[in-house]
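FORM 7B - TANDEM STRUCTURE REPORT

SECTION 1: FIRST PROTEIN
SEQUENCE AND TOKENS:
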Amino acid sequence: MMRRRERRAAPVAAMDMTTLDLPHIQPRLTMLSQEDCRRIHEASCRILERTGVKVYHEGGLQLLRQAGARVEGDWVRIPAELVDWALASAPRAFALYRRGSDQVACQLDGEHVYFGPGSDTLRYLDPRSGERREFTTADIADCIRVCDYLPEIGFVMSVGIPRDVPTKYYFRYQYAVLLRHTVKPAVVVCNDLADIEAITAMHAAAAGGLDQLSRYPTMLLYSEPTTPLSHAYEAVDKLLFVARHRIPVTHSPAPMIGGTAPITLAGAVALGNAEMLSGLVMHQLQNPGAPFLYGHGVHHLDMKEMISVYGAPEFQLARVMAAEMARFYRLPCWGYAAHSDSAVLDEQAAIDAQFSIQTALLAKTNLNHDVGYLEAGLANSPEYMVLANELIAMNRVFVRGVRIDDEALALDVIDAVGPGGQFLSHEHTMRHWRELWVPELFDRQRLEPWLAKGGKDMRTRVREKTLAILDSHQPEPLPATVEAEIEHILQRRD
């Protein structure tokens, strides 16, 4: 008996030394060692030095040439020392702000995790009619009002392509809608320099000027290299513009394993990492210290359907690898969450959302987009965003972890209640019960009371919640002078 007690006591002693003084013990998802990260980094540097990248922009080529890269026409080979310099130059953290204020909305520091919708889907799943159709600007406004309401949505994107505005300028109309219907910061996708200039002018009008926008950015540009190993003229044009004005950017490639990247996940990540690093070098050469968000979106080609997919374990492994590499570089990280290959909001979509949300929170990808995507990004559903909001809230409680201190262990409380007692009325319970997660959409009733209240399934509850938001939520309006300036920018064209 004595030996048994000694064996049971040992873990408690270890716990006393290592965890009792911590406020929370948190679950964490890790995969790569420092040596693994170093090997991926060195592989990416070898790609840049030996294979090189194509840069179809004379301004970008000139920056690289002057910094010591080997430039032959539009073909550039970048030395590892230049990559190391750019990584050391980029800031370790930066913030995005609420519209027209100095209030931080998203603190991008490698630790905080935020979620938002995606951009530019073709089809809208209308929660009012159930119809699947093309987007209008009014539909985008509805989606953004839902995002403005939902507490777990930290930023917005353009959601869909409106068909009721001039095609050449639709990006500008999208972001005018965003500015008018939420105070949350925007991640911007657009076509060319003229677009980003116009959208920046709109955000500057709401911020109180371009200097204020640079100081308290309410927008982040999302742009991409072209896999494999190319930087289009328009992409570099936008990248250098935001660098000059210190507007945050993620220049995030999207290699597709088995298609535009090696079939192996490690090879695709090394390729995507090289593409991202080459963009970072140009960005920091343009303006050292300008804010840059690490990221790559390694997808894979489904060899059965021959399409790029979201709902795959390989896609989530790539997200973990991106988070690990961002930590290795000490940069905040771009991510993905709450998206599905399913064509409708069904069990598959819910499973995909849960898998990706929990991965994002555990791996700590910091700014996660594409909430609400169905059909692998061809359609968007505001109901899916409402469901994702509930799942994010639930998973945040899980990721927050547990306390193991005197108050949490509650030994005095257990002693006071004693054998056969009850804890419901104890002051300790009154003090802490609000720390438990209380769902809004999940239903915990048993069968009889659930039937008595209408027997509504989750799909019905999500739709009713979405319609209630659309019927009642009104975002904070823009000042009339800012509205007039936005309208002027939209009419000015090029």
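SECTION 2: SECOND PROTEIN
SEQUENCE AND TOKENS:
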Amino acid sequence: MSIPIGKMITVGLLPSPLKRAYYRMKGARIGKGVKFGLLSVITAREIEIGDDTRIGPLSFISVRKLKLRKRVRIHSTVAVDTNELSVDDDSAIMEQVVVGGMLTPRSRLVIGKRVKIFPYSFLNPTEPITIDDDAGIGGANYIFTHGSWQSQLDGFPVSFGPVHIQRGVWFPWRVFVMPNVTVGEYATIGAGSIITKDIPARSLAAGSPAKVLRTGSEYIKEFSEEEKHVRVQEILREFA
């Protein structure tokens, strides 16, 4: 991944209103209230940015096609180098996240609504990575869609394949995801786990490699309306 130093010290130094005008002049569709931080730059053939989206200082996005919907937050020192990046409403990529690696025609990262990717994570979308609505990718997580170095002709294993993280999944810190994996909706993965195969929906999995520990009602409690009311009161008391 090469850092576009030249653009960062030229276009990147423009104030946010002039950057908006510059990208619009180049054909970008940019909504109202969009702001660009100091030394942040975009290199893309197609740019679509929705209302009230923010791109923080010292961040660069180098893609063929960029689509950021409404109220997206790309925080400072984020580096993106892939074919396509799509981020839906109210999602955030936090500080010092890197998205990049070997490029193929299929390389893309697709992020749904209300997703948060926490700092220091590395995502490698050589094959597609899809993160559905309401998922949380905790700090220092690693998501890889290929694993190869030694020669396949000499008998070494080589793996390429997409990763799909479904709705409401939660990864805490230092989860490592290998290629050809789907994590089912509302699954939770223990910190420090390595995911090498599919994880079923609504389950708790942990370990290296990750194994399912509990599923369904064994893991997720079902509250009555009265129990929910009591729970809300307890939460409000704690906030107070």
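SECTION 3: OBSERVATIONS ON SECOND PROTEIN
The first strand starts at residue 29 and ends at 30.
The radius of gyration is 20 Å.

SECTION 4: SIGNATURE
Preparer initials: ____
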